């Protein structure tokens, strides 16, 4: 038993109860796991005010949300071409899933840039076009879900070499919001420099100040509701936990305290009430779980796959699975380990859209010839990285119609004196059936150097597996245009090939005519063309169909129960902690969970996280079963 007196800077705090710890003892047939401790906690937790009613019975949640929806995420590049989103919804989603509702998350809808707020309006591409898109998609069963950046106020964004910023909102902040910002213990304003602001800073408003809560409802949520959005996530205020505030002029206690939970409950409640004046079925959510808010939120952004632990012990979802649906917000298309874990864990199916969903037969390397230019002066398929590990990439890219190898234009990359680098990249999906593990492929392109203070190259690497990457070095300036190529093999387990034009040091270079080809046995080559259909497409169809249909009573609405003991092989899973070198964890080749429906029927779900057949053994109460799962199979055992 621990002491009930805890020391804090503000004085002693006496708990109203003792903390007692003990052990669990299992049997050889039923050894103890974390599920036993979670079951004990759940017996108490589900009697609390935040968890008394199963999700399927909640009358504050619209019927469509209780109808086991899936989710898709469209990025800023998709939003700049709304007709592509309409085509995906009409020609893919409604064709494959005519009855299933869909949550449509939008990333990058903000006026200035992704996660740059709160000067959000007009949204991308403009308010009227966005509102029409949301309305058109709602008619097809989709419900818009933007994620404003919580209480964060971007002060500066995109730092330039001379110390100025592409976006500077400090004057407006001082005029409008400064008295309501979080202050540190010394009275100084809390400021941070998150990587997505490209060297810029942000302050954080204090939710304990009524002005902040009213501002969030009135200036952020209400305008989005008027644009047709029905679901809202308070992003970047993780679990309602924003920085401790010591501002003396705010009506709350100093530092941390119960007041933070109380005021955030008020925020969620008033937020929902405000939005429902425009959207009667509005749903609220918050980034990452906090059980105190379960009864107000209707969907939960979940991040268990981002844990660097050996086992993804999904404790929150296990305890509250039948009370609140979770989704894995940062899942990448084709990441078999993440998607298999999320499917077995009963999380909302999360789709990453692609033009290949529409069956287009086009090169796997999108826009390798740099002919397709976006409205903002970039190239379709290619993205410019703003920063990495705290380093701002402040070099620039240009559409160059004067200096090119062939066609109408090339990409020009420039880094001036005092700038760090420019990084432009594309992730090529390796999971759609167009690539073979162990197959030989060739990346090539026409490269030209104007001047360079150091060697640079077009690099490539693999995501999801260990494998030797490579590079296409830029030629010397006197060489003019040079055709450079590199052959490689696709390692087993790789889900993406990342192609990166990375230029550092003072330089000007050009790239044109890039191609990704298969090298045949006789030495000839052919460009790799997307199949439009492959393992990822088949897996997602099976997952959505099971979650919304046959498996709904367990995967969407069931109570999680301790699964049978499973024995199977493991596979390496690469992780890269911030500032550290990558290393491998071992994850199972098959994920397994068990559920109990509201009528007492039980089911076990098994998901193969590999592209090969796998054998597993299940042991439960003295009974052993050996099963063989096909590649990417999801199996429901009732």
**What's the N-to-C terminus distance?**
43 Å
Label the structural class. Answer: alpha+beta
Mean of pLDDT:
92
Q: Mind describing the biggest β-sheet?
A: 6 strands, antiparallel
C-alpha-based Rg, rounded: 26 Å
DSSP strand (E) fraction? 25-35%
CA-based shape: globular
Low-confidence sequence ranges:
1-10
Number of strands: 37
Number of helices: 11
Q: Estimate percent helicity.
A: 10-25%
Keywords:
single chain, globular
Task: Describe this entry's structure for a reader.
The strands form 12 sheets. Strands 19, 20, 22, 25, 27 and 28 form a 6-stranded antiparallel β-sheet that branches. Strands 16-21-26-23-24 form a 5-stranded antiparallel β-sheet, with no helix packed on it. It contains 11 helices and 37 strands. The longest helix has 18 residues, at 258-275. The radius of gyration is 26 Å and the shape is globular. With 638 residues, the protein is of the alpha+beta class. Helix 6 packs parallel to helix 7 (258-275).
Show the helix and strand layout:
Elements: E1 5-8, E2 11-14, H1 34-45, E3 70-74, H2 76-79, H3 82-96, E4 102-106, H4 127-138, E5 142-146, E6 152-154, E7 156-159, E8 165-168, H5 170-176, E9 191-192, E10 202-204, H6 210-226, E11 231-234, H7 258-275, E12 283-286, E13 300-302, H8 315-320, E14 326-328, H9 336-344, E15 350-351, E16 383-384, E17 387-388, E18 391-392, E19 396-400, E20 410-415, E21 421-429, E22 440-452, E23 457-463, E24 470-473, E25 482-489, E26 496-504, E27 507-519, E28 525-527, H10 535-548, H11 552-556, E29 559-561, E30 565-567, E31 570-575, E32 583-588, E33 590-596, E34 602-608, E35 614-620, E36 623-629, E37 634-637
Parallel strand pairs: 3-4, 3-15, 4-5, 11-12, 13-14
Antiparallel strand pairs: 1-2, 6-10, 7-8, 9-10, 16-21, 17-18, 19-20, 20-27, 21-26, 22-25, 22-27, 23-24, 23-26, 27-28, 29-33, 30-35, 31-32, 33-34, 34-37, 35-36
Helix pairs in contact: 3-4, 6-7
């Amino acid at each position: 038993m621990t002491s009930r007196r805890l020391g804090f800077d503000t004085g002693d705090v006496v708990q109203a109860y003792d903390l007692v710890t003990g052990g669990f003892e299992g049997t050889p047939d039923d050894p103890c796991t974390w599920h036993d401790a979670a079951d004990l906690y759940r017996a108490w937790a589900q009697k609390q005010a935040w968890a008394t009613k199963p999700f399927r019975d909640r009358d504050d949640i619209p019927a469509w949300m209780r109808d086991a929806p899936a989710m898709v995420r469209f990025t800023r590049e998709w939003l700049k071409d709304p007709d592509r989103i309409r085509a995906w919804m009409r020609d893919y989603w409604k064709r494959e899933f005519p009855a299933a509702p869909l949550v449509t998350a939008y990333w990058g809808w903000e006026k200035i840039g992704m996660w740059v707020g709160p000067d959000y309006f007009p949204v991308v591409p403009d308010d009227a076009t966005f509102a029409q898109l949301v309305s058109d998609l709602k008619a097809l069963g989709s419900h818009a879900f933007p994620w404003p950046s919580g209480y964060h106020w971007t002060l500066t964004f995109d730092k330039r070499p001379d110390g100025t910023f592409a976006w500077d909102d400090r004057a407006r902040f001082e005029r409008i919001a400064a008295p309501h910002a979080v202050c540190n213990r010394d009275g100084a304003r809390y400021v941070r420099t998150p990587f997505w602001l490209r060297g810029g800073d942000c302050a954080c408003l204090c939710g304990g100040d009524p002005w902040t809560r009213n501002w969030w409802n009135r200036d952020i949520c209400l305008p989005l509701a008027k644009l047709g959005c029905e679901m809202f996530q308070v992003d970047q205020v993780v679990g309602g936990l924003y920085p401790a505030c010591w501002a003396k002029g705010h009506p709350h206690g100093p530092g941390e305290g119960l007041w933070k939970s109380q005021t955030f409950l008020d925020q969620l409640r008033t937020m929902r009430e405000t939005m429902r004046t425009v959207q009667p079925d509005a749903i609220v959510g918050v980034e990452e779980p906090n059980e105190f808010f379960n009864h107000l939120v209707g969907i939960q952004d979940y991040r268990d796959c981002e844990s660097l632990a050996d086992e993804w012990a999904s404790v929150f979802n296990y305890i509250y699975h039948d009370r609140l649906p979770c989704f894995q917000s940062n899942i990448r298309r084709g990441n078999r380990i993440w998607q298999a874990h999320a499917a077995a864990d009963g999380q909302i199916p999360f789709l990453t859209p692609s033009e290949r969903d529409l069956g287009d037969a086009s090169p796997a390397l999108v826009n390798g010839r740099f002919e397709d230019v976006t409205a903002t002066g970039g190239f379709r398929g290619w993205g410019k990285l703003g920063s990495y590990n705290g380093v701002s990439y402040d070099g620039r890219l240009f559409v160059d119609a004067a200096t090119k190898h062939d066609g109408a234009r090339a990409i020009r990359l420039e880094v001036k004196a005092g700038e760090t680098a420019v990084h432009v990249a594309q992730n090529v999906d390796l999971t759609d059936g167009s690539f073979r593990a162990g197959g030989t492929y060739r990346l090539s392109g026409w490269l030209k150097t104007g001047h360079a203070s150091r060697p640079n190259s077009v690099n490539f690497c693999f995501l999801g597996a260990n494998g030797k990457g490579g590079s296409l070095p830029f030629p010397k300036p006197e060489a003019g245009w040079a055709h450079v190529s590199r052959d490689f093999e696709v390692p087993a387990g790789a889900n993406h090939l990342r192609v990166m034009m990375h230029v550092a040091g003072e330089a000007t270079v050009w790239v044109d005519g890039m191609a990704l080809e298969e090298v045949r046995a006789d030495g000839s080559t052919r460009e790799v063309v997307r199949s439009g259909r492959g393992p990822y497409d088949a897996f997602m169809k099976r997952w959505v169909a099971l979650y919304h249909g046959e498996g709904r009573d367990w995967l969407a609405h069931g109570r999680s129960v301790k699964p049978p003991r499973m024995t199977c092989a493991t596979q390496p899973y690469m992780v890269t902690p911030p500032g550290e070198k990558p290393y491998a964890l071992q994850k199972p080749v098959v994920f397994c969970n068990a559920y109990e429906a509201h009528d007492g029927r039980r089911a076990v779900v098994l998901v193969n996280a590999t592209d090969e057949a796998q054998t597993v053994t299940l042991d439960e109460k003295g009974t052993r079963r050996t099963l063989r799962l096909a590649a990417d199979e999801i199996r429901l055992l009732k």
